[in-house]
Design brief:
Elements: H1 20-28, H2 44-49, H3 53-59, H4 65-78, H5 82-88, H6 94-104, H7 122-125, H8 130-145, E1 152-158, H9 165-178, E2 183-187, H10 195-198, H11 207-211, H12 217-220, E3 222-225, E4 228-231, H13 240-245, H14 247-256, E5 262-266, H15 275-283, E6 285-291, H16 297-309, E7 313-320, E8 322-323, E9 328-329, H17 335-348, E10 356-358
Parallel strand pairs: 1-5, 1-6, 2-4, 2-5, 6-7
Antiparallel strand pairs: 3-4, 7-10, 8-9
Helix pairs in contact: 4-5, 8-9
Pfam families: CbiA
Protein name: Capsular biosynthesis protein
Domain CobQ/CobB/MinD/ParA nucleotide binding: 156-329
Length: 360
């Protein structure tokens, strides 16, 4: 998951050296130049609308005019970009520069409109990490497959709990929102909901309240990014399966077609109750998620068969904690189980990718 980056420039200002992060900055060819000294007295409105890195940090009061001037001097003397110079001087962290770079590209960063994103969500907090790149790869596969569709509806399911489905649902919804897809993330796990924790939304009304007719959708939707809305699970009802079975869920999903480009639905573990089967049937298609050293062949087959019998189109599988270089699970202790799981997925899937597969 997320790992902290130690800033090698915190205590001194050495000459520029090879650094993967700085290489990434150079490859992006971002014109991240600081404001010239004259712009330090620019009107507030001009600063607010500026996309230059120095102006963004100045407007947010993260840097003072004096700090920006010092960064510009270092930038000029060493032939660096603004972000590189600021990192070397210890005035900004890599994470702060990454977030502003994301802003310059119109790419949603780690700051939410409401609440705070869980630090493990790499797609927000570590946008240049391998994990974030794999999530974007998954997003691309889905968008290519659904290219002719006006509305993407996708349930995320797993056989058992703690297999990463809720994390994947949140990450995929974020990834879709980052490319301008107006996305709705629904937490339909009414027994053990998670999405309110990933976005620090607290206890509030949500899906269960809407399906029970106690409130409207608009009253409980939470906009966490310009293009991402979250519908939390809401209070846990005593009869979740009956509530999910009601025609209200199908009507809600149908109404979303006119308001959103994509809808990602988190579900309860498939082997624990029939909720996932009921929800996925109404959504129509799903991703099946497994976890290293946890998912067994038996539960995988059972979950797959149950979804197929319910008329759910399993468009792909995701194997969390997958060793892409060796094309096998990372943990030696689960080697034989992992091999059986790999072979099972090869039989179930028409096409296979490292760590995930999306059927075209």
């Amino acid at each position: 998951m997320m790992s902290e980056h130690k800033d090698p420039f915190a205590d001194s200002v050495p000459a520029a050296a090879a650094d993967p992060f700085l290489d990434e900055l150079n490859s992006l060819e971002v014109a991240a130049l600081a404001a010239a000294p004259a712009s330090l007295v620019t009107k507030d409105k001009a600063l607010r609308n500026s996309t230059r890195m120095g102006d963004i940090f100045l407007f947010s009061q993260r840097l003072s005019p004096e700090q920006i001037e010092k960064i510009v001097q270092t930038q000029t003397q060493r032939g660096l970009r603004f972000g590189e110079a600021a990192i070397q001087l210890g005035m900004l962290t890599r994470e702060e520069v990454e977030e502003v770079l994301a802003t310059q590209f119109g790419y949603a960063g780690g700051s939410l409109l409401v609440g705070q994103a869980d630090p493990t969500l790499a797609i927000l907090h570590q946008p240049f990490s391998t994990e974030a790149e794999e999530i974007r790869r998954l997003r691309s596969n889905i968008l290519l497959r659904e290219a002719t569709q006006d509305f993407i509806r996708l349930a995320v399911i797993s056989a058992q709990r703690s297999e990463g489905k809720s994390y994947l649902a949140a990450s995929l919804a974020l990834a879709l929102a980052q490319v301008g897809k107006r996305t709705l993330l629904i937490d339909a796990d009414l027994r053990a909901p998670s999405q309110h924790r990933y976005f620090t939304l607290g206890s509030r009304d949500g899906l269960s309240s809407v399906l029970a007719g106690r409130t409207s959708l608009d009253e409980v939707l939470v906009q966490v990014l310009p293009e991402l809305f979250v519908l939390p699970a809401g209070p846990m009802p005593p009869n979740p399966l009956e509530i999910l079975r009601a025609p209200r869920l199908q009507a809600l999903l149908h109404a979303c077609r006119d308001r959103f480009d994509a809808c990602i639905v988190d579900t309860h573990a498939a082997m624990s109750a029939a909720d996932a089967q009921m929800v996925a049937h109404q959504v129509g298609q799903a991703l099946l998620v497994g976890w290293r050293d946890h998912t067994t062949l038996q539960t995988l087959r059972q979950a797959y068969d149950d979804m197929q019998s319910a008329g759910v189109d399993i468009i792909g599988t995701i194997y969390n904690a997958f060793d892409q270089q060796r094309n096998r699970p990372l943990v030696r202790a689960s080697r034989s189980m992992g091999a059986r799981l790999q072979h099972a997925w090869q039989r179930l899937r028409r096409r296979r990718y490292p760590g995930s597969s999306i059927r075209g």
